[in-house]
Amino acid sequence: GQGWADLYISPVVGEPQSIPMEGSIPLLIENGVIRTRAARLMGPFQRIEASGYFDIARRAAQFAYRVESDRVERIPWLIPIDFGPDPLWLPTTGAGVFDGDLYISPGEVSTDLRVDLADVVAPGAVADRVQGSISIGRAGLRDMRLELLRPGGGLIVTGSIPFRGRPVEAGQQVLCGISGDAAGWPLDQVRPWMPLEIPADGPMFGSVRLGGPLGQLNGQVRAAVRPATVGELELDEIELRLDFDPGQMFVDRLAATLPAGEAVLSGRLDPASGSVDMVVHADGLAMDRDPFVQLMPGGLSGRLLVDGTIEGSLASPRMAANLRWR
Fold it and tell me: Are residues 225 and 204 in contact, defined by beta-carbon separation less than 8 angstroms?
């Protein structure tokens, strides 16, 4: 059949969990398809424009939308997808523009989304500006490319992220495949995404790659933190080159650069058992520079050469070293 309607939406009163919005939705019905070309809704924090159609017989729909929001944490309520528990990527604060296309068919909902956001806070990042695109389906995020900016730093994140705790039908599984490229990005904001704890702070330069099913990730880190602090110790730089899989971690190079010189570790770690098998080398640490000046205020001179091994476990390591002072 055919027909038309002009709906007016009023805000729900007394529902603190609702999104109060009002506006008009003009509808045109023709041959079993309901169309709208200029739906507009407004509220205290959101402004929405949409156009599209719903095919009654096929139970399929497609809508183009644009959302201007002063509270982006409310936007996920408008997307009929369960994102899983506490996703690191989902903003809890911010403002900006979302525009994209929403697709609905029996058993499936997805959206291709473009974002331009400001003052964004999420469990896994804080940024002054976030721009990019992402595809969201029931199983996870795909085709993600986001650029995050803050004073003195930038981060580009690409790839896919599955939703935790979601049963996935055959052919719908999304494997984790994330690439992060940082330039001056705070390490404490990269740490939630990394499979190991790096007990340091400072701006990070380099890349992190993660892949595979959640809980069985593999990947690599090629990064430097400079300057860096470890507890109360200040370092010029920490350089980290490692590869890992669900069973073990291979450290190609973990170098700490201090005013006294450079110390380098390499070897293997087993995160499950905590076993460690590494070698350490330092060629000519200056004894009259920090941290030795702080540790031994009386003053020393000369250079210290170190060759050693670290074995056993992370909880109770055994170290054997050959020290030469010249």
Answer: yes
